[in-house]
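Need PepSY domain-containing protein's 3D structure for a figure. Predict it.
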Amino acid sequence: MASTSNSLVEVPSVLESPTNRFYRTIWRWHFYAGLFVIPFMLILATTGIIYLFKPQLDALMYHHQMFVQPTGVMQPYTQQLEAAQSAFPDAKVSKFAPNVAPNRSAEVTLMTSDERTLTVFVNPYTDEVLGDRDENKNLQSIARKIHGELMIGKFGDYLVELAACWGLVLLITGLYLWLPRNRFKIFGTLIPRLWSKNKRVFWRDLHAVSGLYGTLLVAFLILTGLPWSGFWGETFAQVSSHFPAQLWDEVPQSKVLTGSLNQHGDHVVPWAVEQLPMPLSGTSGHEHHSGQSRASSTAFPKGIPLGTPVNLDSVVALAQAKGAFPGFSVSFPQGETGVYTVSVFPDNPSQEMTMHIDQYSGKVLADVQWQDYGLVPKVVEMGIAIHMGKYFGVGNQLLMLFACLVVIVLCVSGIVMWWQRRPKQSGRIGAPALPPYVQQWKVPIAIIAVLGIVFPLVGLSLVTVLLLDYLVLSRFPALKRVFS
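Structure prediction for PepSY domain-containing protein:
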């Protein structure tokens, strides 16, 4: 959002007013933040647009696998599962998602021996396998992995988080640079002069005014995306996601967290429950394995009814009886002490549910729903739903699309503005000159302190950049020339 109209003539620092020196310092911050952030923001905006329209793209790309003609009575869920397993006998079942509507297929997630994640589509009326989708090659899954971790794992996650936080620095410094320095004018300040034949005016106004009107939306995207990040997001979740102990009914808990179900770019459980420990299934009575009736004479106060086999059919029936909204999935037990997990990650966060079920007894070990969330998890979940374009339908998607397009416009116009003002054939990158000293440091120091406390990565990196700028770049003529 920087204005560069006053940048073409270098003014000796000794003749500059304190306000002008401060302006140039903020502009320099904005410039360097842009150098780092722009590549990441372009990636995030582009992949975000792709994933934003996942429902429509999935229906278009996999129509014949996802949609069926309702005929007769649906087959038992266990038979649908067996049909998928028969097609891939060496694969391990990870998750089952019942059909969300009469004209939709069931989806079975399998893990193959060569570490592929497959979604197998099954006709719920005929048990016919309609096809499969390799999630490692699915456009939307790839977009999500790039969006979250640049497809390079944890390090990529940290890079995305750092870039997003620096995006906030860009917004703050950009707003300051947008403020009229002299007499206020509507054109160029509130209305971009896109009709101007002066290319610099065109791009400057497009950048500044787009940034002004898009600031809140872009800030919203950044802040609602950060809870998924690896460093800040996990720390924030540990601090804010607390639930009453009675929700677990004093059941044994493992060291594995519920968030471990969110793998391979697939969000199975809501953010609010990611830090909760997974309960353990009872280790006694192994003769009551899945598909066989329980011999116990004690009726459990909650769970699958006594005498009913604990299998996929009964787990789905229990989920429906508990009010799970269509679109829920069943994650299968991992190991002898693993549990069935019924989870709903719907468009409306108030319909979320995460329920763990003992794989032997059928007892509900934990049942966490919207009403159990604290205020902070509720706010975060609402923000995530809007961020992903899910909460209020197509209108939500279009609003977030607009925000992504604003990001792209800001990035492209910022690059063009730099290209227009860069020194020609001088070996310099064209950064705004660094004033020898700045008097008005109270506000910047306060901003750095707040950012450092709220976002430690950006605070640490901001201090590092400032020290490099003032203690290194300014003292070596060769470096000072390049970075100016």
